[in-house]
Amino acid sequence: MTSTDIQTHLQVQELLSAWAWCIDEGRAAAAAALFCADAEQNLLGNRSVGIAEITAAFERRQAMVQRTSQHTISNLRIQESTPELVRAQWVLTLFRSDEATHDANPFLVAVGQDSYKRQADGSLKVWRRDVLPRFGQGA
After folding, report:
1. Rounded Cα–Cα distance for residues 40 and 34 (Å)
2. Distance between CA atoms of 59 and 133, rounded to whole angstroms?
3. What's the pLDDT tens digit per position in 89-118?
């Protein structure tokens, strides 16, 4: 693995960690800022096109103050990397509870498939995201 490959892997890992943390902590604006203006997101069949729809989806989740969640990302695999575009696959294990006791079992295991666009400053932003259920809710 070259140093460029390692840097790209770390950038994608940081984006995924930030996305998960923002959702779990109710930070809709920060979660939306991880996406390109022309991004598309398909979460378990709920499709959002463009940053306005993606922001609205994160705001709806943020409004669910009774919900406690823990998004855990693993098995990151960079599938393709060019100077402009990175494609990656990863696994999401989601724990969630809408109960005051915060008792939670794994709610979902899903496969994420992302495309990231490299920005002028060298950073990456999510351009396309598909989260497809493997086990649990919606599978």
Report:
1. 12
2. 22
3. 999 999 988 887 777 778 999 999 999 999
Interatomic CA distance for residues 87 and 89, integer angstroms: 7
For 3-136, CATH gives 3.10.450.50
In angstroms, the Cα distances linking 15 to 43, 76, 104, 127, 132 are 17, 12, 25, 12, 19
Indicate the pTM of the whole model: 0.91
Two tokens at 53? Answer: 């729809």
* Structural domain boundaries in the chain: 3-136
pLDDT digits (tens, 9 = 90+) for 75-93: 999 999 899 999 999 999 9
